[in-house]
Amino acid sequence: MALNPNGSWDADGISNAIEVWQGTNPCDGYTYNPCPYYSLAQVNGMPTLDWDSDGVGNADEVYRGTNPCQFNSLQRLPHVTAAPRTGYVAPTVPAPLCPHGYPHYHRGNGLCYANPVGHYYVY
Description:
Helix content is 16%, strand content 5%. It has 123 residues and is mainly alpha-helical. Strands 2-1-3 form a three-stranded antiparallel sheet, with no helix packed on it.
C-alpha cells in the first residue's frame, strides 16, 4: 500500500488507503457496505458506489438529502413559504374633462361632442 495508496489494487473503485483504514482487504474486490450505519468519511471514501443499488451514487444521495442505504428514500424538499397575498386593486381611469357645452365623450376617439350621434357617455 505504501507504493500506491490512491490506487485500487482490486479495481473496486475504493483506494487502497481507504480500504486499509476501514479494515478491508485492498487486494480483495469485495465491496464494503457500511449500511445502515454509515459515516460521511465512508461516503467520501466511496462517493461513486451505490450501496442501495438504486442507480444514484452515495455522494449524490447525501448531497440530495436522501439515504444512500435505502432504495426508495425520498428527497427532503427545502422549506417553502407562500408569499403574502395582496388584494387586487382595480386601476382607476380618470374621468374625461370635456369643456362646457360638450358633455358627450367618445371613448373610441377621445373627443367631446355637444350633440353626438351613436354611443356616447355623458360625464
